[in-house]
Write a structure and sequence with these properties.
This protein has about 140 residues and is α/β, with parallel strands linked by helices. It has 2 domains: about 40 residues, Trypsin Inhibitor V, Chain A (2-Layer Sandwich); about 70 residues, 2-Layer Sandwich (Trypsin Inhibitor V, Chain A), CATH 3.30.10. The protein contains 2 helices and 8 strands, in the order ββββαββββα. The strands form 3 sheets. The protein has a 3-stranded mixed beta sheet, with no helix packed on it. A 3-stranded mixed beta sheet has the order 5-8-6, covered by helices on one side. Strands 4-7 form a two-stranded antiparallel ribbon. The N and C termini lie far apart (about 135 Å). The relative contact order is 0.16. This is PASTA domain-containing protein.
Length: about 140
């Protein structure tokens, strides 16, 4: 019998396992010999996860035997934990490969607080009282 299994260490078509020890003699028609042939490295399809939730994508990819690497950045257009970009995508990769994601941290809180403070400064400016001084000269005869 010949079984087939994926094996990242052995090229496709090679026998990497058998149920009889090497150099062991067997009687013809007296033993059931099992050989295991390598199918090579298992290929996994990586779909497009852009604009999807990072945690869900990570869970799915890890269940398929892939590794996930993430970098984060602020984004005015993507909510927190949404995938902005990925590499690779829409292709087959070897099982055990790494998929890289750029994930949104949401809007930059420093910029938001700066905008808030700027607008509150504007409000303060609207409440200031302006003082005008006039000087008049009179001639008395």
């Amino acid at each position: 019998t010949i079984n087939q299994e994926y094996n990242s260490q052995m090229p496709k078509g090679y026998i990497f396992k058998q149920n009889i020890n090497p150099n062991e003699s067997v009687k013809l028609n007296d033993h059931h010999i099992v050989l295991t042939e390598s199918l090579g490295v298992k290929k996994v399809y990586v779909k497009d996860y852009e604009n999807k939730n990072y945690q869900n994508a990570k869970k799915e990819l890890e269940s398929m035997g892939l590794n996930v690497q993430v970098k984060t950045t602020n984004s005015d257009t993507k909510d927190k934990d949404i995938i902005i970009s990925q590499s690779p995508k829409q292709t087959e990769v070897n099982e055990g490969s790494t998929v890289e994601f750029m994930v949104s941290k949401g809007k930059d809180k420093k910029e938001d607080s700066k905008k808030d403070s700027d607008s509150s400064d504007d409000k303060k400016d609207n409440h200031t009282t302006s003082v005008k001084n006039y000087t008049e000269t009179y001639h008395i005869p």
